[in-house]
Amino acid sequence: MRQSVRKSVFAGIAGLSLAGTVAGCAPSAADSTPGAPAKSAAETAAANPSAAMSSLASSGSTYKDGTYSADGGYVSPNGSETVGVELTLAGGTVTGVNITQHPSNPNTRKFQGEFAGGIAAQIVGKSIDELNVSKVAGSSLTSGGFNQAVEKIKQEAQ
Fold first, then answer.
1. Per residue, what are the HEC states of the chain?
2. pLDDT by residue (tens digit) across 39-87?
3. Measuring CA to CA, which residue among 88, 148, 86, 76 is closest to residue 112?
């Protein structure tokens, strides 16, 4: 792939990521009514206890214990790649991790191997809700696939 095309692809991906981040930070219409005073969590719970309970349950604050696995994809200079992630959860905390490498070339094998060797030190003992890996052992692109797989695991574990 020519250098200029590669730069254009990365610039496009970066732009889409930025747009998604900004959109995710925007307040929704359900957040509050204009001019209405904000209610505390205690006031909301007192007014409607069942709504407060369902709000907690849907926030993803509880996960079933067990071992879950999912694949996550990402784009490297060599094309589309996939990495397998297996997490063991206890009380919403990561107690174990296993990475299954799906390399398409020697470069990907190298970076996924480095990622697999360093990820446990980064995430074991942390809440699954706190996981957002950016760079592990020199591998920065593999983390995108890892984070995507973690999102799938969160949905499965609820």
1. CCHHHHHHHHHHHHHHHHHHHHHHHCCCCCCCCCCCCCCCHHHHHHHCHHHHHHHHHHCCCCCCCEEEEEEEEEEECCEEEEEEEEEEEECCEEEEEEEEEECCCHHHHHHHHHHHHHHHHHHCCCEHHHCCCCCECCECCHHHHHHHHHHHHHHHHC
2. 433 343 344 444 333 333 434 458 999 999 999 999 999 899 999 999 9
3. 76
For the entire predicted model, the pTM comes to 0.61
Contact 5, 77 (CB under 8 A): no
Residue 60: count of CB within 10 angstroms of its CB: 14
Task: Using CA atoms of 116, 95, 154, 52 in order, give the dihedral in degrees to the nearest 10.
Answer: -150
Burial class (CB in 10 A: 0-12, 13-18, 19+), 75: middle
Locate 99 and state its tokens.
Answer: 């990475």
CA distances to 7, 51, 52, 62, 129 from 56, rounded to whole Å, are 43, 9, 6, 9, 14
Residues 90-108: pLDDT tens digits?
A: 999 999 999 999 999 999 9
